[in-house]
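S.,

Sequence below, as promised.
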Amino acid sequence: MGKRLRSVREARGISIEELAQRSGISLEELAHIEAVNVAPSLGVLWKMTSALGVAFADLLGRGGATVSLQRRADGRVLRSEDGALESRPLVTAGASRWVEAYELTLAPGSSHTSEPHPSGTREIVVVLSGALNIRVGAQDYELKPGDSISFKADLPHAYQNPGSVEGRYHDIIVYEY
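The prediction came back faster than expected:
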């Protein structure tokens, strides 16, 4: 992750100090990620991609192969800092420059606030099991299994599991390039 972050950052002509300022991530943390090649939390990864104006796949690496096969056990699970939200890729990073697909799990009674994505980004969320409340801007939506929602993800948005069981969702992120 660290080498890829440095490569993307430098290709965009952004200093590590500027990335720290844009993202709200400390210079020390960014330097540690780049130097030690550690995987950041889900929140830090969102802040970095938003500040760089790139998709997750740009930091996780690109496929480029004719066929990309993603085995469930091989997907790198990203977690929120509190561990309540897990995001597992459903397709290989870089399989598409415009679309990413994730399986999200959210612990019972917990919530997660997402950083707004780059301008023009949309999300499509499908509830597989449990329940999900989504706030997009100032509007709240309640979803049950089988329900889906599509929204502009460049707006502030948050996910809440109001139930007493873990919620499972598919999250499709569509970037505008």
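The longest strand covers residues 99-106.

Coffee later?
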